[in-house]
Each structure stands twice: as C-alpha cells, then as structure tokens.
Amino acid sequence: METFAALAADSRLSILQALSRAGRDGMKSGMIAKKLNVQQSTLSTQLFLLHKANLVEKRREGRNIIYNTNLPTFRGLIAFLNNDCAGGQLGKTVK
C-alpha cells in the first residue's frame, strides 16, 4: 500500500518521470529540484517518501547523493497491475 500512496501525488510522479528519463546514471537532488522547479526542502520530503516506498534508490558519490528509479519495484508493480488488476490485458490492442 505504501507504494500506491507514494504514487498518489503529482509531484512524486514528476520526480519518478524525471528519474526514469535520466536512466541508469540517475540524478543529483539539486538537478531534480532545478528541472522540476521545486524547493530543495520540498524535494527532500518527496524523495524520502519515494525511497521509503522502495520506488527510488540512492547512492552517495563523494558529497552528492544520486537518485535512481528502483527498476525491480517498478517491474513488480507493473506485473501486479497487469496480472492482478487488468487480467493480463495491459499492452494488448483493443478491438
């Protein structure tokens, strides 16, 4: 449930979109704040909630913290939505 609660805010979805587009290299929190035009304190709270829900990973590189999407969690979420909620119909063409 924590995962779905974390996805319930537009701001957190925007962060996840930015991180997904950044790919494996991820992004520094300052870059995310600049890209999304949000205050660092607000971003820190949102990143904390996403990390707590296991949707993002973080790693330290020197003085910087780099954030990435947690791909295994995303794959599990997509599988759950497809198999348990959509009856395996996600991605199929509707006729």
CATH class: Mainly Alpha
Series of secondary-structure elements, N-terminal to C-terminal: HHEHHEEH
Coarse structural class: alpha+beta
Overall average residue pLDDT: 88
3D structure, described in words:
Helices cover 57% and strands 15% of the residues. With 95 residues, the protein is an alpha+beta fold. It has one domain (2-85): Winged helix-like DNA-binding domain superfamily/Winged helix DNA-binding domain (Arc Repressor Mutant, subunit A, Orthogonal Bundle). Strand 2 and strand 3 form a beta hairpin. The radius of gyration is 15 Å and the shape is elongated. The relative contact order is 0.15.
Structural descriptors:
5 helices, Arc Repressor Mutant, subunit A, 95 residues, 3 strands, alpha+beta, 3-stranded antiparallel sheet
